Amino acid sequence: MPNMIGTLRDALGRGDQKTLLFLLAIGNTIAFATWQVLLNNFVVEEVAFTGREIGVLQSLREVPGFLAFTAILVMIYLRQQTFALLSLATLGIGTAITAFFPQALWLYFATVLMSIGFHYLETLQNSLSLQWLSKEEAPVVMGQLLSAKSLCNFAILSALYLYLALFSANYTLIYCLAGGSAVAIAVYCRLRIPHFPDAVVQRKS
């Protein structure tokens, strides 16, 4: 654990491609893990979902996953780094608005929006990792990214457990904090981290 924290601190202090990869991983985990952990409780307690509605929700969540290949088309017009930050912001917005209106249609909409950001971001994270990392460092750094996600997951679960043990559940607040954190990370990366050229240039023809 101390080694992982030290590695994460060093990576975030560099301001290079690895910094961006770590921040994307952290933002992704904060938003999606929070959304996923609280979802079943929220839809049952606040929206009165039954198994049928939950099944529809989970099915809709997977639809953007089948469409992730369309990222290739978007990358013709957007650089991958910009696209990744937009995807993280979309994931964050979808998470933040989840509990605004406890209605089925709204929840379906927020879920699809969140899922679009999540699946595009996963695709772009893998693509950027393989472009920016050498063959020698790729296994090590990608392992560190997985460790950072696990550490972030543990921190989120611990924080949620303590919050729910001490206070009544305020789903709007929790989802807004998680989604807002992801959006804030996307904005920070856009403003503070240099824009790196794509290693593979996409062509329109």
Explain what the structure shows.
The protein is mainly alpha-helical. The chain has one domain: Growth Hormone, Chain: A (Up-down Bundle), CATH 1.20.1250. It has helices spanning 2-14, 17-45, 51-66, 71-74, 80-96, 104-132, 138-166, 171-192. The protein is globular, with a radius of gyration of 18 Å. The model has no long low-confidence stretch (mean pLDDT 89).
Itemize the secondary structure elements and their pairings.
Elements: H1 2-14, H2 17-45, H3 51-66, H4 71-74, H5 80-96, H6 104-132, H7 138-166, H8 171-192
Helix pairs in contact: 1-2, 1-7, 2-5, 2-6, 2-7, 2-8, 3-6, 5-6, 5-8
List the defining traits of the structure above:
mainly alpha
Structural class: mainly alpha
Name the CATH architecture. Up-down Bundle
The count of DSSP E runs of length 2 or more, i.e. the number of strands, is: 0
Overall outline: globular
Mean pLDDT across the residues is: 89
> If helices are DSSP runs of H or I spanning 4 or more residues, what is the number of helices?
8
CATH superfamily: MFS general substrate transporter like domains
What's the order of the H and E elements?
HHHHHHHH
CATH first level: which class?
Answer: Mainly Alpha
Integer tally of domains: 1
CATH topology: Growth Hormone, Chain: A
Task: Report the span from N to C terminus.
Answer: 48 Å
Largest sheet: none
Report the radius of gyration as a whole number of Å: 18 Å
Helical fraction equals over 70%
Beta-strand content estimate: under 5%
Instruction: State the low-pLDDT regions, or none.
Output: none
